[in-house]
Every structure is written in structure tokens, then in C-alpha cells.
Amino acid sequence: YKQVVRIDAEITDNTALISLFVPKLKIPNKILISANLNTESESLLASVSIPKIKFDNLKANDFVSNVYVKNGEIDMFLSMPEIILNDSVLVKDISILAKGTKDDLGFTINASDRTEKSGLNLLGNIDYVGNLYNLKLDTNSTIFINNSFWNLAKENLISFNNKYFDADFKVFHDKSEVNFKVNKLNGENNLLVNLKDIDVDDFNEFLLNKGINLQGKLNGEVKIDNFDKEPAISGDLSVLNILVNDYLIGDFKIDSRVDL
């Protein structure tokens, strides 16, 4: 017997239920859900709309998700106009498109900052092989930071499951490079970030709003030990030829450790 089943739901009292699973997540108003299940084409079309979301100090409005599933194929679109941190816009124009199967899913992620001087357009794929999810970003992806384009290395790969995480990932711009690697030591997952000839003024956007123009070259290494359980951050960094509001300070070295 072939038919189309229509489902419409409005969930208004969800705070207690959500807090059981994600205590910091708050959805103060309502969740709107609509779906069409077509037994003839064996397909499902669903839409979820959430007017307001709050997670700790982060807030978002007008979250929308549309999903179409047929014969194991998934076609999904998510969007949010902006994410707000402490009443200031952190990221805006967020959209995620995904198409494929649960074992081989292609995706596109777009977002920009409030000034539109920084943003990203990530193209990639997630496949599932040998109990591992493998995420690889396309080199046609773009990362735009303070009006400068950063490129992705061909070798980037992130592999993970609920018990395992491994990453080898590099972005570069002109002579600047940022390398991300995960290594394993004594059963702990450690994240290593290596910085080479980073122009500090490429990341100066937030300080400029406070009247601070910081310049210099950043080199060194930041390590996050046991990042998925009890993280501890250590850094060995140097900043060369530091200028603050065009006043030459000189060179600066940072060697520190913080347990979280």
C-alpha cells in the first residue's frame, strides 16, 4: 500500500529534555518540524526550524535545516544568519550543504566574519572505511583571513571514530605556514600546531577595534596534550620585530604551559 505521510510538530517544552543530554544548550522558544514520507518513492523530505539557540555565551537565531533522503542518498542544507558571542557577531552567513551517502558524503561549508574581511569556503568529502571516518578537504577550498587568501595542502587528512583521532593538515599563504598534527603518546591524543613566518597583522582584526595595531612575525609551536580528555596547553613561540601602533618594541619569546 503506497501513500504519503505528512508530519507536523511544534515542540515548545524542551528545556528539561535537552539539558539531560547537553546541559549548556538552551532552546527557549520552540522547535518546528515538518516531514513528508513517500512510501511509493521510498523518500523522506524533512525540515527543522529553530528560532533561537543558546549555548553558553554563544547565541544563534533562525536555524533552518532541510533534508531529503531517497534510496540511501542524503541531500542536506543547513543555514544560520549569524552566531553571536557576548552580544557581538562572531560569524555570519553560515551555510552547510551535504550530498551523498552515510559512507561517502561530499560537503560545502561557507561562513564569513562580521566585517567580511575574513571567511571560508570549504569543499570536502567524508568517507567511512575500516571503522574510520576520513575527512579530506579539496584544495579548491578557500580560507580568507583579513583580506588574504590561505591555501590547503594536498596531503591534508583527518581520520576519526569515537575512540580514535588522527590529523595531518596544513594551510599556507605566501611564506607563512600552519601545520596541524595529532600524535599519540602513552595512550593520549596530543595536538601539535607548528607556526612558520606568520604575519601577526593578518590576525589583527579584533585588536584594531580597540585601537591597537600589532605587527610582527610569529614562529614556534603550540602543543595541546591529551586534548580530548584533560587538556594542557604548552607553547614555545617567538615574535620578531614587534610593532605596536608603529612603535618598535623588538623581539619577544613566550614559553608557557597551562592546565585546563
What would you say this structure looks like, in words?
It is built from 2 helices and 19 strands. With 260 residues, it is mainly beta. A 6-stranded antiparallel barrel has the order 9-10-13-14-12-11. The longest helix has 7 residues. It is globular.
Q: Oligomeric form of this entry?
A: single chain
Please state how the strands of the largest beta sheet are arranged side by side: 9-10-13-14-12-11
Beta-sheet strand percentage? over 45%
> What overall geometry do the principal axes of the alpha carbons give?
globular
Give the SSE map:
Layout lengths: L3 E8 L3 H7 L3 E2 L4 E8 L4 E13 L2 E13 L2 E13 L2 E14 L2 E9 L6 E11 L2 E6 L4 E4 L2 E5 L4 E5 L2 E10 L2 E10 L2 E12 L5 H4 L5 E12 L6 E13 L2 E13 L1
Antiparallel strand pairs: 1-3, 2-4, 3-4, 4-5, 5-6, 6-7, 7-8, 8-9, 9-10, 9-11, 10-13, 11-12, 12-14, 13-14, 14-15, 15-16, 16-17, 17-18, 18-19
Q: Features of this protein?
A:
260 residues; mainly beta; six-stranded antiparallel β-barrel; 2 helices; globular
Question: In short, what is this structure?
Answer:
The protein has 260 residues and is mainly beta. The chain contains 2 helices and 19 strands.
